[in-house]
Every structure is written in C-alpha cells, then in structure tokens.
Design goal:
Helix content: 25-40%
CATH class of the largest domain: Alpha Beta
Shape: globular
Number of helices: 17
CATH topology of the largest domain: D-Maltodextrin-Binding Protein, domain 2
Radius of gyration: 21 Å
Structural class: alpha+beta
Number of domains: 2
Mean pLDDT: 92
Strand order of the largest sheet: 1-2-4-3-5-13-8
Distance between the termini: 61 Å
Low-confidence stretches: 1-16
Number of strands: 13
CATH architecture of the largest domain: 3-Layer(aba) Sandwich
Amino acid sequence: MRMLKSVWFSGIALTIGCVAGSAQAQTSISVATVNNDDMIRMQALSANFAEENPDIELNWVTLEENILRQRVTTDIATGSGRFDVVTIGTYEVPIWAERGWLVPLHDMPEGYDVDDILASIRAGLSFDGTLYAAPFYGESSFTMYRTDLFEAAGLEMPAEPTWDFIKEAAAAITDRSNEVYGVCLRGKPGWGENMALLTAMANSYGARWFDENWQPQFDSEAWSSALDDYLMLLNEYGPPDAAKNGYNENLALFREGKCGIWVDATVAASAVTNPEQSKVAGNVGFALAPDNGLGKRSNWLWAWSLAISAGSQKQEAAKKFVAWATSDKYTELIAKQDGWSNVPPGTRTSLYRNPAYLDAAPFAEMALASIQAADPNDPTVEAVPYVGIQFVAIPEFQSIGTAVGHRFAKALDGSISREEALANAQWVTGKVIERARFIED
C-alpha cells in the first residue's frame, strides 16, 4: 500500500509518502531526501523494501536541495530525531560524525560489501576510518554538450576543453531567437548550488577560499577573473533569469534542448541521454570539466548518501533501509525496471566492471575518470589549509558559502557589481573566520 500527500511546512510544499508492507507494520521511520531524479526513483521503488520488511513503514519527506540542508541540519544538530534516515553529502558526513550526530555503519548486514565502494567515495564518507554514511550515488562534474549544435557550427569539442574554448563555443551556438542558449551553469544561490560550480571553476583559475594562514582570498586577481568569466558566460550566452537556476532547473533546460553546453554533475548523464526524458537524447556528447592550463580542472567530488541520525529511536530499522537502498540488489532492481544506464552511479567498483552497464552507459568511463581524478586533499593551484574541492571542509562553510553565493547571485542578476560582490565575499568570510578563531591573534 502506498499513500502520498502534500503538506506545508514553514511555507514549503513537501511530499510525504508512506509505504507499508501490510497492516502489521510496527516501526515507522522517516526518510528525508532531496528531489533529484534518482531519489524520486528510490521512493517509487521502496514498495519493494516494504514487501521484504512488512514490519517497517517508510515516511518520506522530499525537499529541494537548499531546503533539505536547512531542515536536516537543524534536526541533526538538535538531536530531535524527527528524521531517522537523512540524505547528506560528502561535506557533512565527517563533520557531523566527529560531533557524534551520526550512527556509525561498521556493522552493516551480512553480504553488504563495503570494500566494493570506490575508495575516494568511501574516504569522503568516513571519520577515523569508520563509515558513517552509505553512498546512494557518487559524482564528479564534467561537460555535457549538444553534438548537433557543434556540428552545425563547425566545432569539435576537445576531450579536455578549456574555459576559453567554452566561451568561444557558447558564443557560436547561442540562438536566442529559438531559445537555444550557448551555456547553462548553476546560478541559484547556495553553498551546494552556485558556489559548488563557482568554487570548482575558480580552482582552475588559480583561486582559493583561504591562504595558508586562513586569510580570505576574494580580493585576488584569480577570483576576479573567474567571476568575470562566469558572469559574462551567463549574461551573454545563458538562459534568462540564470540566477534562479540550480541543478534541477538546468537539467530541465538541457533536456528541453535549450542548453548547448552544461558543466555540471556526472550523475546527470543518464537523464540527458534517456529518450523518454530528454528531447536531445541522441545528440549529447561528454568531455572533461574545463581547465585553464594551470593543472586543475573544474571537477568536484560529491556523494549523496544515506545516514542515520544519532537522535533516531529506530536505528536498526533505519539501517536495514540504508543497506537495502545502497546495495547491489537495489542496483539490479533499477537495471531490471529502468535499464542499466539509469542505475545510481559513482559508488561501487563492480559497477564499472559490469559489461552490461558499460554497454548501456557511454558516459560511464569518463564519469569514473572524473571521480578518480578529483583530489579533495589537493584542490587548488596554490597550497591551502583545508580539504575539499567545491567546498571547504569546516563547519562554518555552510553559512559563509551560502552568504557568498547570495552575493554572487546578486551580481548575476545585476543587483550589485562584480566588485561589490567580491568585496562583500571578502568581508563576510573574514568575519566568520575571525569569530571561529581560525586566525591567531
């Protein structure tokens, strides 16, 4: 039995789903997740879990990415236990695990092959050698583009493009009269939205958030150049209201045939090449994320993962669900129903040795190469005191990343100048770090 209803929570429309195997359900667990395609598919298939576990009922809370982070962070930090299973990422897991907010996953059910998880993904979801979240899908970022538009313009996408080439190509394929925009990039403010793309992009320009003494670096020429090119690309060759577009909005634009180039998460590849979802499915090519010849590409490392709140009173039931949703068995279930190209990518070594997946997913090898090339321990051209590629792995980053993201979004929509946005970013980042006492007096 499956029931769905919508409710309003703090002004946000939520979809709450209940999946129960039978009337004998005794334990009800709440699962908070993001409204990405793969998670929506997981919710739809969770009836299979309910059939195998009739004593466990699933209650779903599905949220837009920025709102999910706010709600889950508040719940976890206060230990209220409103959510038993939470969808979080590579940024949160080590920080929250160190604070005792998550349940360690050192005793997953028999047959759950932890060693099969890709080394870089597993490391990012661990603290002191213990896994604290199970990856649902892993990703880096790369360049997706319309091969038909490139052919018509007489262009050939390099396997390793530069940002200069992206600018030239975007100019050549933009056709505003037909609502075809040369490039789509994240513009929606948020540390995991526009700042994920911009931070990774800035790395390739030689920029960094902090120097080795934790001094903010937004007054550097590298940040100025990166932001200038970002604003130029979207203002001249991007879609209208680009400051409102995050991952999901750009995905929709690309599938509608309105984006010529999209630099974003590797996980999007299956969606843009699925003919049931994408109008341009047969005309999509892939390349690595752009660089600037400085030794760093604009590719990040991330995993949307399932973790269990330490405040949960139903940890054993929650662990059963986490194991089911991140297992080989779940992958095979997706493959059987939706095809191998749609299985959650970027988590297990065995998937990239599976001929059925490699045959069905022409993007698989490039996505894996992007994941394996991403090095959170060495993310920038110049040395930095932090770990993380598209984020800085400190507790304060969630607030400063979002604050800076809002300033850059205002620069994108024309509310403030590029110079003002950078000055504001420098000021707010410096103040937060000073209060956190990272800098010695």
